[in-house]
Design brief:
The chain is α/β, with parallel strands linked by helices.
Length: 318
């Protein structure tokens, strides 16, 4: 390694990759540093697109966060990248849920049906059959304002309006900062559930045009029940350090409310796929699976295997 890493090999004029092994990757000021027995190597994080972590490599939370913020992909592999052990992916290896989600989005009539089901889950009373989407959105806006006002009255926390500036975080009042922090936790959990089941976080129905549109759609199902009341209770206890305290409170509340068990059935309900709550035969969501031997004579490379085909690696296999 050594000084050669200071000039990162490039795929082309824009993208770069990097292989690391037997060392510790840490955040250092505005860049990264890789610590080895023979020295420390500074890394140009803003130029990296892909980092391969080989054997004997560790990294800190701060380093992983910096890689994510710079849109750098990370994978864990074998020596010199010969094997791939893990990378950021969902828990399913089938695309049927994603295809269904895309089909519903592309059909105007079915998309409106999904939107109505999403809104219906938020209201205790049935929606009027002749209500337009614009009218229902107005009803939802009024419901959210009532939720904020009721939480304010119940806790005594002053409330004007939902307002915050990402570029000037501390210009917002404690309630708004706490709400943003709580919602961020909720988005993270919904995002993980969406990916684990093989849906796309980008194909939203109410929210559109963002890479997390579907995440916002699903998270909105739970805000008035969970994050809004929790936020105001947390701020009522003390306006100090509300971001950290509300994150810890969210962790506990999500566990107590069994939110993780609710998200996927709720997604299946709004997408009218309630018969798709479990794994199909061979789907193996979240389980360890292996690739079949692609060197077999007569097989097309990467052709999907039929049911029961392939073999499982056992101890002693190379």
């Amino acid at each position: 390694m050594g000084k050669d890493l200071k000039i990162v090999p490039r795929f082309d004029d824009r993208w770069s990759y990097l292989y690391l092994e037997h060392g510790r990757l840490e955040k250092e000021q505005r860049s990264l540093a890789f610590y080895r027995k023979d020295g420390i190597v500074s890394l140009p994080i803003d130029q990296l697109a892909f980092v391969m972590l080989g054997p004997g490599t560790t990294l800190t939370h701060a380093a992983m966060k910096a890689l994510a913020e710079n849109n750098c992909l990370v994978c864990w592999g074998g020596e010199q990248g010969v094997r791939l052990y893990a990378h950021s992916t969902g828990g399913t290896h089938f695309s049927r849920r994603l295809l269904r989600q895309a089909m519903l989005f592309c059909d105007d009539k079915k998309r409106l049906q999904v939107i109505r089901r999403m809104y219906q889950k938020r209201f205790p009373e049935p929606l009027p059959e002749n209500a337009t989407i614009e009218q229902v959105r107005g009803m939802e806006g009024a419901r959210m304002r009532r939720a904020y006002a009721e939480a304010s009255r119940a806790t005594g926390v002053p409330w004007q309006a939902r307002s915050y500036d990402q570029g000037n975080w501390h210009s917002a009042d404690p309630a708004n900062r706490a709400l943003s922090s709580a919602n961020s936790c909720l988005y993270g959990l919904c995002h993980a559930a969406i990916l684990s089941a093989g849906y796309s976080p980008a194909i939203g129905f109410i929210h559109t045009g963002r890479l997390l549109s579907f995440v916002y759609d699903i998270a909105d199902l739970y805000k008035t029940e969970l994050t809004i009341p929790l936020t105001f209770r947390t701020v009522a206890e003390s306006p100090k350090d509300v971001e950290r305290r509300v994150r810890i409170a969210c962790r506990d509340l999500f566990h107590e409310s069994k939110l993780m068990k609710r998200i996927l059935p709720d997604i299946a309900e709004v997408l009218d796929a309630r018969d798709d709550l479990g794994e199909s035969p061979g789907e193996l969501e979240g389980k360890i699976i292996t690739l079949a031997d692609r060197a077999e004579v007569g097989r097309v490379p990467w052709e999907p295997l039929g049911e029961g085909q392939g073999r499982t690696l056992v101890d002693g296999d190379p």
